[in-house]
User: Fold these one by one.
Assistant:
Number 1:
Amino acid sequence: MINSLDMINKKTEWFRHDRFGMFIHWGIYSIPGKGEWYRSHQKVSIEDYQPYFDAFNPTQYNPKEWAKLAKAAGMKYMVLTAKHHDGFCLFDSKYTDYKVTNTPIGRDLVAEYVDAVRSEGLKVGLYFSLIDWHHKDYPKYKDLNHPMRDNEDYKDEEIDFENYLDYMHHQVEEIVTNYGQIDILWFDYSYEEMVGEKWRATELIKMVRKHQPNVIIDNRLETSGEGFGSIVTDAINLYSGDFVSPEQIVPHEGIRNYKGEFIPWELCITMNNNWAYNPNDHLYKPAKVLIRKLIECVSKNGNMILNVGPDALGNIPQDSIAILDTFATWMNQHQEAIYGCGYADLVKPEWGYYTRNNNTIYAHIFEQPIGPIYLPGLKETDIKRMSFLHDAGEVKISKSWNTNAFKDLCFAQYGDVDHFTYPLPNDIA
Ligand code: JFZ
């Protein structure tokens, strides 16, 4: 088996076209409501974490509703935490008792999610944690992230890490064989010496690809949210993944390999400052900021996966729904400037971003201009037609600015005056 950028580009064609997805962080940590790292941050023992397992009963769980919200917002794929670092499985694994079917809800919630997402016509993704704070053979005292990292009781622990890897591989196999076609597999994550073959990554990927030849995989068998991995080098590992996964940061000029070729990437981003439910975190980014982040990603040939953290009943918080609704309105009018679009290969305009789909350039104007809008990188003769996306109204090339000192530059003019009237419609195309 070999791996190459050509193969990666072919496999990720739909993904690069679709550009926008929904991330869902949800599990028994949604009960304490302090984020999915709660057990580690507060150094909670397995015993003290058990009440959340015993209480997990999300009676309002309605993945069809989640999928409808995502779809309306213009998202084309979803990724749900089948298992996060706490080791709790939202799916019915036969290799552990630490799973959703043994909680009060008693159902395989991944199975229901997969059906719901598919029935809405969205692509199905699952997140799977390589890290497992529950398994007896995962390093504890010696691991910088483990809830028991400072607990002397575990100082001389003897673990059989190979046994953990067998377990982890078996669970991944369940995920890729029990739920039909999986479109995205989102492993998380590598750190320090816990990277690559430490996870028996080649073996793992061969197994996954055997069952799911078309699945798109992130790069975190090789790295965390901070690295690129071998995908940008001239020696791409089998387990390089198919896209880079920068976390809470937009790579300033996209991501390219050693030859300068663009590499598929996906920004993962939270709406507030938590992945999982935290009712005390009210620091939501305004919807407008998040929409602009999506535009920025696309302008740099990337995707964006926007996160929600449903509560312990299964409801997506109202603040998140409000943001999704704003996306829905915007995407309704402007999706053409997102789907199938990417880097424009033009000078970046000071008023916002260009995105591009073949010969169509989309100008995303973030800042109210004075006078006409300068279109850097374009000449009058390059332009056949200009119009707004929201109403198909005509936009003209400004003629008066063509006769003076600015005459070799290209300006867009809207309406019958030589400047853009206020309020500015969102975009011109
Ligand atoms: C990881 C998870 O730990 C987190 O809970 C969430 O699921 C996110 C999408 O992915 O977050 C990380 C992973 C690695 C680093 C930081 C956050 N890192 O190495 O700095």
Number 2:
Amino acid sequence: GTVSLNDKYLNQFIEKDEVIAVQDFVKAAHRKIHEKSGAGAEYLGWLDWATQLDKDEVSRIEETAQKLRREAEVLIVIGIGGSYLGAKAVQDLLCPSFGLNKMEVIYAGQNLSGRYMEELLSFIEGKEVALNVISKSGTTTEPAIAFRVLRAWMYEKYGEQAAERIIVTTDKTEGALRKAADATGYTSFEIPPDIGGRYSVLTAVGLLPLAVAGVDIRALVDGAAQAEKDLASEDLFENAAYLYAAYRQILNARGYSIEVLASFEPAMSGINEWWKQLFGESEGKQGKGIFPASVIYSTDLHSLGQYLQNGRRTLFETMISFKEEQYQSRIPFDQENGDGLNYLADKTLHEVNQQAMNATALAHVEGGVPVVTIEVERVDAFHTGYLIYFFLKACAMSAYLSGVNPFDQPGVELYKQNMFELLGKPGYEKKI
Ligand code: PA5
């Protein structure tokens, strides 16, 4: 299929009976998701979003993106967590590396680094710029600060015309950003109230920046819609997302409490980050959760690879494999053969990379690391949308299997509270 699970390296770690034993729990969790009866049920809007999505809204996003592409060279997306990781992930995977994209989409508001901001301001000097500020709550401090700085820069450069280059993506009625949009006439998009940040990449949160970056957002949504149909069964042997979730929890129960998402494609680094947020923020609560980590191979075979092979045996690995050979870069024949590589002459890098993956999986399994492989047919917008939905659904299932609410993030609040106290925000009396 489009995205499928290959468990040939798992067989020596998990018996089929163990999987059958969790089927009833999977069915119960499936009902929580589909009947909206579990904890956090008010955040299940993502479940059928791709098939319900209003095509007029997609057109409005595309038109806005076209306008921005005509008028600007750089789009700065301001957001943090679920308000930027999805767009960045898909952009990293689908857009060319090495600055080959004509329209630059860059990010701000995901850190408080003065250096980052100063270098960003130097970079945009003399360029035509647009802003897309994204915050569901409209009150998150990091993006609010970045927006204040960059908005001042925009008004300095464009005067009142700046308003036409600022796009707001936020809640329909709530928050400071909605007020700003209403007061200034900024073009705005809505984040549905029933879709949380880390589940929002297929809403305007991800779609607008991605359309500006040149991604085929309709294909992305279509891929998710296909996954929605394919991953609707309550039977975990007919639902790859549920099977993946079940494997994770079976392994976790056995003390494999760290999952390493491994990819042999460097363009996957953004998806790694998005995936870590999705699973980390959804499952890491009540003293539970699988710690999500990630690697990019071959790079990390010469780094964390040593730990994977011989370190503490508390981790399992999920490898992502892209099956189709889309790029034909070949290793040339060399008369001298000084490097001894003629045995590889005429092979594509893809072929060699695939063997690097098989070799790594075999080595890690031998070293005691359970390995599960997610096979993706090819890299394009459709398959990326499919893969995103696969993970969203697997994450909801996995969190319910472990008995936590997949959709809240109570633990993100304490640092904010402390920061406000330390910075003297009005209304926050000092505890520290
Ligand atoms: O997944 C989540 O809900 C969070 O990571 C939020 O996306 C993040 O905290 C940013 O929130 P907001 O969009 O309200 O600024």
